Each structure stands twice: as structure tokens, then as C-alpha cells.
Records
---
Amino acid sequence: MDNCTLFNFSLNDLGFGSETAGLEYGVLGNMIPDKQDFSPIFSFQSSSSPATTPTSQQPSSIQQKSTPKRDNHRRKSRNTENVYNSVQKPFNYAEGFHYLIQYVTEKMSREDLRRISRALSLFRPSFLSLIMNLTEEDLVFMEKCIQRTLLEYEKLISFSGTPTVVWRRTGEVCLVGKEFSLLTQWTKDMLLNKKTYIYELMENQSAVEYWEKFSSHAFDNTDKACSYSCILRTPQRKPVPCTFCFTIKRDIFDLPSVIVGNFLPILS
């Protein structure tokens, strides 16, 4: 299926400097319907995905159907040269936002869907202005910078005693501290051996609040941390109330690249 059929408009007509950037914007735009009509979101689903009743109590089964096993290169010993040589093409952010559409549609209520769509619409104009003229070479360079940053964060997290997770702007988990595994019982293998998204580890209400707060700070040109309370879920779906603080790190093009999240349990 070509992009024109998928989005009901041609990305080429918008004049993006990169097809990859245009595709990410197109997926975001497809999740933001006009005049409160949410039918575009439902039409975007694969016909092979059955509809399910929204619930926060069921573990996600979408991920196993739609995402392959992740390359485990980050778990191996790496150096700067390996990081730069391993990146040959831009990262596919469109896939992550496409998965968000599927997850929200199948696992959340219609009101949750409306709130997340409204949140994404807040930063869409700023996002467009920044990615419009980026070329494929820019995006490759951006991904190299992200991988280099993750290499440093991996060292810092190993010295920290705070439960920490690092994820991309799509929510895809990149790094996990051992303290987070102790807090939630999600091991590194469980989270990094296949694509996992931070909102999948949260209760639905907490996930919605995260996207609302992320959209408010994604392009405000500050590095201040955003704090609120959230409820994480263990692999057995047991609730883990936490105080949650995240900081958005931006690349040289001022786009949100990675988000560093710290979690502290609320002891009652």
C-alpha cells in the first residue's frame, strides 16, 4: 500500500526533505482526526487485527503480533566506533506511532483515545516546522547522535540507585536500569529483547496523563523535569504506585530524541 492510499493524501505534495520524516508526520496526522470524527484511527488498523474490549487489566498481545524480536546489539559490548558504523539508515519512528494507534484503539476507551489524540495535536505544528526540511542524511546523523547518547546514559544508569528507564519519543524503551527491574519485576531481557513501549507498562490512566504532559513540554525549549504520580504494572499485572519524573532530551535539530524517566515507589 502506498502512502497516498494509507493517509488519503500524498506526502510528496507537502515538500518534506526526507520520506522517512514525512512518513512519521503522516502517521501522527492520521491519528488526529478532524471535527472529533475518530473513524480514521479505526480504518488505519490492519484487517487481520480483531477488535477487543478496552481494558487496563489485560496484558498487551498486540506487540507479539506486530513487532519482531529486537536486535540485541545494545546488550553487547559497544564502543564509539561501533555505534557510528552500525547506523546506516534513519530510525523508523513511524512504526512506533503506528503501534501507538493500534494499542490505544484496542486497549483503551474512546475517551482515552480522544485525550491522546488531542495531546498529539498540540505539538504537531511545531513538529512539522522542525522536520520539514530534514534530509535522510540529517536523520542518519540524528540516529548516530542518539546511539552515542545512549552509550553514555548506559554508564550513568549503572552508577545510579534510582529506578530509571530511557525511551524514544514514540515511547519505545531503549535502556533499563537494574533498579527498575527490581521495582517492577520487568527484566532487561523482557523489555529489550523485543520492542516494548513505556505506556504498555503503565495503567491506562497513567499512560494518558503521560502523553498529555509529554505533548505540553515536547517543544517548550526547556530541560525542566515533569513530575506526577503514575501506576506501573508488573508482568503479573499487579499495580505499583510510583512518583514519576521524566526529562525530555533534544537533539541538535531541537527535536525530542530520548526521554529519561525516574520512578520512586509510593509506600503506604
---
Amino acid sequence: MDLLSWFLTIGIWLGVFYIGGVKAAAAPGEHFAILIVSANAYGLTTATLALVKGHLFPDSKDRRFSGSIFHDFLAGVELNPRLGRHWDLKMFHIGRLGMNSWVILYLSTIDITHDHFGFYLGWGSAVWLPFVYTMQTQYLASHCVQLSPKALYTILATGISGYYLFRLANHQKYSLRQKGEECRIWGDLPRIIKAEFTTADGERHNTSLLFSGKP
């Protein structure tokens, strides 16, 4: 369904381009300022309502309370808050709103599984992901720069390398969670830090922090 929504989003944008031309297709970029103000209002409202819902109208027992209302607002209370039976707010914001709007403005990460839904994911998918990640293109659209082939390929290689490292780090964390200490990091057994913490409800939890990964 995520892939379908992505194709639908791109298809609609291409339809707008075909019917209205470049000016119509570039409308999101031309109205960047008002869009970012609206997105901030939406993201803050969503995070606030998610906090209230997690405290008063939870969908399940899979909640996390830190003892700090500010931390609960930022990190979230519920793991997968829903509206009705089928509308998963976290999946909608990350898989639909965040990723698809990023693509339009720019012309399975681990946070979906483990992070609770609060300001980081609610506001982040509405504002940080689509607007901050595309700020460079917004600048270049207004300040045209002619790059030499060497500069172009250097920037491209840097971007690809950074994204590769990001995906590699996520994969290493995922492998540790799935296979535990038997996973392999660059062919070797991982070095980890065993950590124990207690949540506000008094329940103790254990986790493993990966700090190795030598090639």
C-alpha cells in the first residue's frame, strides 16, 4: 500500500504537470512559506492530540510513560495509535504524509517499528522530513548555480555515501535486534553494551546498545 500511495502521488503530480504545465507543478515550491507554516501548525496539533489520546483514549496497553509530560510529548506514549480500526497514525504520517510530500517538494526505516508516536514522528513527518530535507532544492530553485562536472559528481557521491551509511547503520541495529549477540557486523561478532532501565510504571527493561562495527 505504501508503494501504491507513492505511485498515486507521483501520478497526480505528473497529471498536474501535463495539464497545467511547469507553473502548476511548481506550485508547492512557490508557496513554500505558507506550506511550512501550515505544516508546523498541523504537526504541533497532531503531537498534542497524540499525547492526550495516549493518556485518555489508548488503543492498547503498549504505552510508555517516562514520568515527564514534556518527554512524553516529544517521544510519544502509544506505539501505534489508531483512529478507528484501520487508520494507523504512525504509518500514515511516515509512509504517506512524510515520504510522499518529500518527493513532491524535492522534485522500512527502524523508527516505524520501534518508536512511539509523538512530536518526533508527528511533527517530524509533517515538517522536518518534507521541508528541511528539501531546503537545498528550494534555495537552488531561487539561486541558480552552475556546477562543474567535478563538483556535481563530488556532491552526488557524497550524498549517495551518506545515504548508504545511514541505511547500513539502520541495518546493523536491525540485525542486533533480530539475532542478538549472534549477528555479524562486518563479519565479526558485535561488541555491545548491556543496559537496564526502569520506566515510570516501575517495570524493568533490558536493551543492548551496539558500539562496534569495525570493517
---
Amino acid sequence: MIIGVFVINPAIRMPALTEFTSGGGPVIAGPVWPFISITIACGAISGFHAFVGSGTTPKMINKWRDIRMVASGAMLVECLVAIMALLAATALHPADYFAINATPEVFRTLGMSVVDLPHLSQEIGMDLEGRTGGAVTLAVGMTSIFTRLSFFDTMAPYFYQFVILFEAVFILTAIDAGTRVARYLIQDFFGELYKPLKQVNWLPGTIFASVLACFAWGYLLYSGDISSIWVLFGVSNQLMAVIGLIIGATVILKMASNKHYWLTCLIPLAYLYVTVNTASFWMMKQVYFNPANAGFSIVNGILSLIMLVLAVIILVTAIRQWRHLWQQRRTPLGIEGEALATAKNTLL
């Protein structure tokens, strides 16, 4: 796919700025900032990738020095995926892009006319208008790029279905991992009320937590449209990233010889926290608690509010801890520190 993009060198047809930059777009109603930071999953600062998607990372690391290669390599590949997705979307004519990602009723209000979409629909063998969600955009964009080669010009259905299958597998894997983590959290939370639930190998508790987790995200999908649900997912995802950066900053303050290294976590944390709060407040005011909006949902609004309150509590607690660590004088390593240093030297 990457080699094909370099060979074909598709033109970017989407303008750098549109009339929807300040908001009111047919896909995402909010302005570019802060919504660009919470609606792009791949290539973004992602809490899901950090906490859930990194479960296999320890299996790739034999020594401490491997961490830089594995972590940096993963980020670069993830960024590459994001660039490929953006190329696929922006290589489409703007009217074709909006025709795919907006409902037919909304698209008619834009005053645009499709360009290549009828031809692509005929080549692929299905009507592509109004297929919101992003997967179809990626598939159509990549198909339109690869079929420009003469020996691929009859393979539009294959490329389209291949990309759809690729993304479906990716999404199902994410749902599987996320549901499993949600089950663990449910068991841990309700286990405070009923102790057997904390036992992850207790079958009734596992079934109960799994059903509850599936019902929760299933209800959210059933009760709202994809644009409002995706933003809610983005907010929760980036708040998880905030927690990850808080943990990283705390570990650096505790272990690093130069405490100023914590700025590598603090700077993105500050940007991310402001961005997520701005987007979440906008969604609560304009969408979730606005009866006139199609995405009106008291449940989504309450969930957003709960997440923001919890994030404030975590951040305030972290700031108090950081202040203590910053003012703390350097002390001898002690038994635990010596053990940690010995273990680190052994691994290196």
C-alpha cells in the first residue's frame, strides 16, 4: 500500500481550509481545533494504544535498550497508518468525500455535485453514498488510487473489499481488547461490593462482566449516531492518554537524574488536557444536552461529565504528588533503590 502510494503519487484534492474549518461541517459539527485531536485515532496521542494496545509490548523486549526501538518503531508505524488514511481521504474530490460521509439529506444541503463517485460505485458494485463511519472512505480512497494503474484497473471490487476486511479485523481486534479490559475493570469495581467478582477465573463473574461491557457499548451505538459516539470515544481515549502522561511524568520525577526530563510528558499533557476539556464541554453544550441537536443524549452527556470530573481529581492529586517530589531532597538509594539499580544493570 505504501509503495503503491509512492508509485502513483496521488494528487491531494481536498483544500487545506474549507468553510467548515470553524465548525458546522456535515461530518463533525465542531471546529477543527479541538476536534482534530479527538477524532483521529491512528497517529494521535492515544490512551487506548498506551494502555490496551500495548499488552504485548513486554513480550518484544529483552533488555531495557530494546524499549526505545520498540516504542519509537510502533509510534512511527502508527503515524504512517494515519498518513495513509489521510491520503486516501484527501485524494477524493471534496464532493465525493462529503457524499460518502454525510447522509443524503445533509449532502443535498451543501450544494455540491459528485464527480467520480458514480463511476467508483459502478466499478465497485455498490452504492457508496451515505456510508458514514470512515471505513468506506478509506476503502474508496485506496481503491481510487490503485485502480489508476493499468494492470489494476479491473480490480476495484477486490481492493475495496480487501481494505474493508482489513479495517474490520482491526476494529474487531480493538473491540475485543477493549471489552476484555472493560470486563476486568467491571469485576474490580463491583468486586468491592461482592468479593467473588474480583476473581477473574470465576465463570459467573466473568460472564456477568462480559455481558455488562457488551451491553454498555452496544447501547451507546444503538442510542446515538456515529459522529457523536466517535467524539465520545475520542474524549475517553485522550483522557486515558492524559492519565498515561501523568504516570510517565511521575515516574520520571521519581527516577530521572535530571528532573526537567518530565517536560517530555508535561508539555503534551498540558495541550491534551486543555484540548479534551474544550472539546468535551463543546459537545455537552452543543450536542449532548441540546434537545434541538440530532445527537442529543443525556447518557452521553453524563458520561462525558463523569470522565472530566474524574480527570480533574486525578490531575489535582498528581500535581500535589509532583510538588512533593520536586521539593524532595536527594536521598541515598536505600535498599529498594539499590535493588532497582542492580536489576537495571543486569538487564542492560
---
Amino acid sequence: MENWQKDPAADKPRTTEVTSPINDLQADSQVAERPADERPNVAPPTKRSFMTVRQLVITGLLGGITALLGLTGYGFIHLIYMKATILHIPTIIGGIVEGPRVGMMTGLIFGCFSLFQNIVAPTLMSIVFLNPLISVLPRVLLGLIAYLVYRAMPGAQAVKIAVSALVTSMMNTIMVMGLTYILYAKEFAEMRHVPLDQVVNIIIGICIANGIPEAIGAAVIVTPIVLVLLKTRKPTRRQA
């Protein structure tokens, strides 16, 4: 009979190695102490920027067009008591073609330029437009409104663009004049030499007399431009 030798290690209970958080921290510290060329290649977490390079370039381009229209005077239509504007057109185009971020940033440039114009070339209504809540905030929201209306509208491309431009332009007039009534009704009545209770009727009249022609003009100008831009634009994912 063969003699079998029993392995002493067989009687020892098997144990499972358990790592503790302290050991993990020590291992991480040892890796950190290594020279840079000996450390394992670990990709750092990527951070998504607020705007892509493409969006920044297009925002700068549309903002430059807005400033050019304002500096040359072609972006403002001088009326008796205020300046009607077509400076919102680049903002609408940016919101429809490139999304709300480009539209809102272009609207910010538009609003800041409107504020600047009322500082250097004041009119009877400049006391109102010196308030950023009236001259800047509604213009920033225009890019978002243009984007949302365009995305929500069914139907043909041209119809969606025209309705978006029409609604956004009307909202520009309504927001500006509505905030004027809320914040400066008394001052507006004094400037126009009318009773305070007549201010709301005058505001509505301005919205109709100025807002409707501006909206129609925006739809006529924006629709063919956006159609061309969408056809020539590369089929990349829209950045919100």
C-alpha cells in the first residue's frame, strides 16, 4: 500500500482576501507619488461646454450683424415717440437655425445694443429703455421663443419658420410695451400728456400699429433666409 503524505496546508482554513477603503486610499496615494510618466493612463472626466465653437462663431456673426444694423441706423425705424426695430431678426434666425443658446446670446447682444443706443441717442422713450428689464430681458427671451415655436409647429418648413418669426416679433413688442405699462405707466402718461387711465389704450394701439408691421416684415425676411440656411447646413445634431 502506498504511503500518502497529507499536505499540512490542506488542514488550514481558506481565507478570502478582503480589501478595505484604507488599502484603496494607500494604493491611490502610491500611484499619485509615482512620476508622471509611470502613472497609468486615465482619461480625465470631460466637461461639456456651454456652447460649441460653431455656436460661438455663429453667435458672434449674428451679433455683429445686429450691431451693424444698429450702428448704421438700418436696424431702427424712427417714429414719433419711439424707435421701431428690425434688430430682432438675427435673434430669430439664430434661435430657429442653431437653437436657444445661440438665439438667446444673440438676443443679449441685441438688448445691450438697444440699451447703448438709448444712452448715446436718447428719445422721449429712453427713460424706459434705460431699464435692462425692458431693453435687455425681453430680447434675450426672443431666441428661446423662436426656437420653441418653431419646434412646436407642425406642417411645412416654410410655414413653421414664418409662424415662428411672426409670433416672436409680436412677443417682442408685447413684452417691451407690457413691461413699460407695468413699470412706467405714470411716466408714460406724463410724456404723452394723457390721463393715466388712457395709457393702457395707447399701449395697445402701439402694439397693433408697430407690432403687426414688424411681425409681418420679420416673417417675410426671416423665412427665405432660414430656408436657405437649413438647406446648406450640414446634417449635424442640433445643440440645445
